[in-house]
Structures are given as structure tokens and as C-alpha cells.
Amino acid sequence: MFKKASDACDMLARNFQLAGYEPGESTWRDIRKGVKRDLQARGLRPNVPVPSRRHIFAYFRTMWRETGSVTQTVQSYLHDGSWTSSGGSFLLAERLGYDLPAMIAESLDRGEEFRLLEVGGGWAGFKNPPGDARDIAGLSRRFSADCGSRLHLHFTNLTPWHSELPQGVTEHSYLTGASLGNIQSQGCLPRTVDVIYSQAAVYFETDIAAFLANAWSLLKNDGLLIFNYPEAAANSMRSEAAKLGLQLCDSLELGGMNGSVTAFRKQRLQAVDSQDPCGHDRRRIPPNPQDVEAESAAPHVATPMTHGVRKAS
What distance in Å separates the CA atoms of residue 113 and residue 151, rounded to the nearest whole number? Predict the structure, then answer.
């Protein structure tokens, strides 16, 4: 694991350099821990809860059962491991009342393209038994006829998890929220993403301002950003979002390691009616100079993405 972790950190550093971002030493410590969690989670079945190291017997029992190797179990104890392996799920979006498969279906029915980006997708559902479309794997099966033509599914990971993926599904490795902008050179262009979603990955992001700025640049007008974060970071995160013109739509405190889950919408410059999709008066939203410049260069203005959204009761 030491060699794989070192190689992954080298690739992450290269992407930071390309993004013009310089992490501090404390940030690098967190990133190294994240890389080791990532490498460990890849060796487990999807969605396996891993006990804390403080409960040493439960931890060893779980890791031995999952790996079948005493050596791997002991080695895993010496590294920063995962709380759970990542199977991939849209559960947090559902908790807020957003039905991503329905949004995609209605967009395709209108003859429009749809682009989804999941930050920290892990297995993205490809190790789970075939089921409904509650993860990227499920979406690729349900909309297989459109995947790669009108439907584009992207996800990031700290390290490569997949050797093969269906047409229209792309994994972008060695990226964090702070270097997410590099995805623009990998087929995910500015102002083309309908939904950016993250379950747990952004929770550990060390530079939330950089992540939000990158997400803003990728989202279409009226695009959605859904992710969870530590409750202690709520004020600073919402302040940074407001500066960018990301409008708070919904938020729910889940507690524990889930923290709070929030949905933001990238504001449009000119409203076609007095109310935006979140219920706020859009006539009161002051234009953002960066938005004006971006809007003038954009070849396409998306229609408000209000279909396929059910509000949580």
C-alpha cells in the first residue's frame, strides 16, 4: 500500500500543479489519509461498514472476513482506513427530495442532453447487484440507448477504481474538489453539467471555497449542486456559495458522519418569471460580473431544470 499511496500522491500533486493550486502541509496530511482510505475501500465489498480502530477486535474481525487475509488485515490496521467502502448511491439527493433518474428521463424526453458529475463515486454502483437507477451504474443500464450520445455520466476518485466502464461513463482519477477544474480538459466542459453530486467525498474536502468555485464553473445556469459537509462548516460554506451566486435551495441536518446535506442552484442572470425554482424572487438577485462574462461566451443557455424534482415532505 505504501507504493500505491506514494504514486497516487504524486499524481494528485501533478493535478494540483496543473490547477495552479498549492496545498499546505496540513492539507497534504489529510489528503494522504484520504488516499489510504481510498485504497483500503477498493479492497472491500461495496457498502461494508468498517468498525473504528478503537474497537480492535471488531475491526480485525470485519477486515479478516472481508479480505480473507491475516496479513492484509494487520497491514490495514497500520494505515488510515475507511469507515465504509463506497458502493455509490444517490441516497442523499433522495433525502432532500430530488429524483435524479426522473430528472434525466424528463430531460431526455424533451430532446435535451444531460450531464451528471459525481465527486468521489467509488464503485459508482458497478459492484452492486443490478437494481434500480439509484447510482451511476443503474443510470447507465436504464438509459443505455442514450448513454454516450445525449446522456454523459462522469465521476471522480482519488485513485483509479475501474478498469472498464460502459459507453458514456467516465472515471476521472487523482482529483479532489480543489483540482476538480482539471476535468475540463477531460471532456467535461465549463457550463455543461446539469447536476454535481457528492455523497461523503466533499465532506472531507480541505478547501471548500476551491471546490465551490470549480463546481460553479462546471454547472449550467440553473444547474444543481448537492453534497454533504460537516455541520461545523455550514456558515463558511454558505458564505462562499453566496459569493459565487449559488443559491441555497434545500438543507437537511442528518447528524453523525453524514453531517448536513444541502442543495444549491446556480442562479440565472435574467429570470423568465419572478420566482426561481427554489421559490425566491429572482428579480432581486444582483448580476455577477463573472456571470455576465461567462454568459456572453456560452453557446447555449439551459432551460430551468425544475422537472423531475419532488420536494421532501
Answer: 6
Look at residue 231 in the predicted model and tell me its pLDDT.
86
Task: List, in order, residues 6 or more apart from 64 with CB less than 8 Å away.
Answer: 70, 73
Q: What is the mean pLDDT of the chain?
A: 80
Give yes or no for a contact between 135 and 129, defined as CB atoms under 8 angstroms apart: no
- Entry pTM: 0.76
77: left (phi over 0), alpha (psi -120 to 50) or beta: alpha
**The cell 482506513 sits on which residue?**
81
pLDDT digits 0-9 by tens, 122-174: 889 898 777 777 899 999 999 999 999 999 999 999 999 999 999 999 999 99
Among 54, 77, 100, identify where a domain stops: 77
- Domain that includes residue 63, residue range: 2-77
Residues 110, 147: one domain? yes
